[in-house]
Amino acid sequence: MSKIIGIDLGTTNSAIAVMEGGKAKIIPSSEGRNTFPSIVEPVKGLVGDVAKRQMVLNSANTIFSVKRLMGQKFTGKQAQKTKEIAPFEIAAGKDGMAVINLGGKTFTPQEISAKILQKAKADAEAYLGTTVTDAVITVPAYFDDSQRQATKQAGEIAGLNVQRIVNEPTAAALAYGLDKGKNETIAVYDLGGGTFDVSILELGDGVFEVKSTNGDTFLGGDDFDHRIIEYIVEQFKKESGVDLSLDKQALQRIKDSAEKAKIELSSATETEINQPFITQVNGQPQHLTMKISRAKLEELVDDLIQKTIEP
């Protein structure tokens, strides 16, 4: 009997897990990481880290945050807001549902999500050494029937039998073993890469009931990265007079450095960004070297943190 895998199909990153010895074990991606980017370049067939590494240089063909379009009407608020910020084309498809147009081809959000799930399936099979056919996929508690059905369809396109769709806050509470405790009311604060969700769960007799959910579907760690990127670009411009935001290759390198710095500052009080030969001025190579403290990061993102308090 093949094992059932659990998939966290995230807006920004996705993760895979399996039960081993009665405990949930994270399955590393093919790149050896606990998560992989929910990013797809369908024309070249790139998914995950390889798609992310070229997204600044190939933004019009690289799809990210497709979860925001799952089960959404094109005229809906969510699709329209995504259309405003996405460099790729979002249009109305069959029955007025949001679709993505790339290079003369049309992709549904389910088809793009399926490519992410196919990678999750392949990585799980490589780790387990066996074929994987069944999965449980998590979704935000506020997902309606249309969004849940779209997620299930994505799983089916990926060749998975979706055994169950589970609310993300419920999965988080289960991961912390809260189902084994006393009857209580708990809050789950979930600040992801692209979205923020807070849910109130009531536990009774080992069963969770979502009583209330709120959040911001356009607030997450990516916004923290953008603040660091803006700060780096601004400081470099002050020192050298060069605006790196106009250089796509430099911007891709800065984007990678910003995310790395953010992660390092979770455990360190200071980190250094070092990007040699970031650009040239009058034929002379310019190097980007800068230190960022945790205090500086907190200052840069303070208003974003405050926005999570409102819901």
Please write the string of helix (H) and strand (E) elements: EEEEEEHEHEEEHEHEHEEEHHEEH
Note the overall shape.
globular
The main β sheet shows up as: 6 strands, mixed
Helix content: 25-40%
Uncertain segments of ≥5 residues (pLDDT<50)? none
Please provide a brief summary of the model.
This protein has 311 residues and is an alpha+beta fold.
Structure overview:
The chain has 311 residues and is an alpha+beta fold. The chain folds into two domains: 165 residues, Nucleotidyltransferase, domain 5 (2-Layer Sandwich); 87 residues, Alpha-Beta Complex (Actin, Chain A, domain 4). Helix content is 34%, strand content 32%. It has eight helices and 17 strands. The strands form five sheets. Strands 1, 2, 3, 4, 11 and 12 form a six-stranded mixed beta sheet that branches. A three-stranded antiparallel beta sheet has the order 6-5-7. A three-stranded antiparallel beta sheet has the order 8-9-10. It is globular, with a radius of gyration of 21 Å. The N and C termini lie far apart (44 Å). The mean pLDDT is 95.
Main traits of this protein?
single chain; 311 residues; alpha+beta; Nucleotidyltransferase, domain 5; Actin, Chain A, domain 4; 17 strands; 34% helix
Strand and helix layout:
Layout: E1 4-8, E2 13-20, E3 23-27, E4 36-37, E5 39-41, E6 46-47, H1 49-52, E7 63-64, H2 77-85, E8 89-92, E9 98-102, E10 105-107, H3 109-128, E11 134-139, H4 145-157, E12 161-167, H5 168-175, E13 184-191, E14 196-204, E15 207-216, H6 221-240, H7 248-264, E16 270-281, E17 284-293, H8 294-309
Parallel strand pairs: 1-11, 11-12
Antiparallel strand pairs: 1-2, 2-3, 2-4, 5-6, 5-7, 8-9, 9-10, 13-14, 14-15, 16-17
